[in-house]
Amino acid sequence: QVQLVESGGGLVHDGGSLRLSCAHSGSIVSINAMGWYRQAPGKQRELVAAIASGDNTNYADSVKGRFTISRDNAKNTVYLQMNSLKPEDTAVYYCNAECARTRGQIQCQTYWGQGTQVTVSS
What we know:
- By secondary structure, the chain is mainly β.
- It is 0% helix and 58% strand.
- The protein has strands at residues 4-7, 10-13, 18-24, 28-39, 46-52, 57-59, 67-72, 77-82, 91-102, 109-112, 116-121.
- The strands form two sheets. Strands 2, 4, 5, 6, 9, 10 and 11 form a seven-stranded mixed sheet that branches.
């Protein structure tokens, strides 16, 4: 089964750093893009950062200059380095694989991880 497994969340103080990791199943042979989304209590889920083939990246305006998304293809892992964290960054962070295919699949599917909690205290 295809799975995305997030890790690295936790509790930090204002100004601290965290590094999130998302490992995806080795059975995935192609992905249009991978990204990180977050959802804070009472708010809509929003895109934080995404990385596509060729390592093209984009970020939400609120995290530009503070967060960096990267990938390690050999490890089937995407990372989100979060620096200068603010209380408003508090949310559940979800890993997303957009239009992923496993071996033998023609139709791609989008997969989500279960989420990892990031809490930034004032």
